[in-house]
Amino acid sequence: MKRLSAMMCLAALLGGCAAYQSLRTPAPAPAVPVAPARPTGPVDADGTPIQTLPFRLGVSSATVEKMAKQQACTGGQGAALVTEAGPVEVYRMQCNDGKVFMARCELRQCRQM
Predict the structure, then answer these.
(1) Is the Cα dihedral 40, 42, 45, 49 positive or negative?
(2) Most buried residue, 11, 15, 78, 103, by most Cβ within 10 Å?
(3) How far apart are the first and last CA of the chain?
(4) 3-state secondary structure 3-45
């Protein structure tokens, strides 16, 4: 009998502690759905961000601009260096009509791509 009442007291104490713990710990807040971040720059038709390159002059920028002018490509900022400076360089020029003129220069000898 003593053993049974001791067990009942222990169960009541443990049950009370568990109840106290659940009162003390706040329930987690429901998750709020977060909208995906929208890209800030230009995007293509599928919504994929388009990478833009900073305009960089190269040693053959003037040569490529003259070549582009011969192909009726004028306007924009001019011929920008796309690759790293070195013995082989690639230049890109945006034309007024929306076309893109590209040239590859190897040791300052340029050819249209």
Answers:
(1) negative
(2) 103
(3) 99
(4) HHHHHHHHHHHHHHHHHHHHHHCCCCCCCCCCCCCCCCCCECC
Quickly tell me which residue has 């920008």 as its tokens: 80
Amino acid type, 48: T
CA neighbor of 109 nearest in space, from 64, 53, 73, 70: 64
Place of tokens 């002018």: 69
Structure tokens at 2: 């003593």
Task: Name the one residue in this structure whose structure tokens are 């190269």.
Answer: 58
Does pTM surpass 0.90?
Answer: no
Output phi, psi for 2, to 5 deg: -60, -40
Counting every residue, how long is the chain? 113
| Neighbour tally for 83: CB within 10 Å | 14
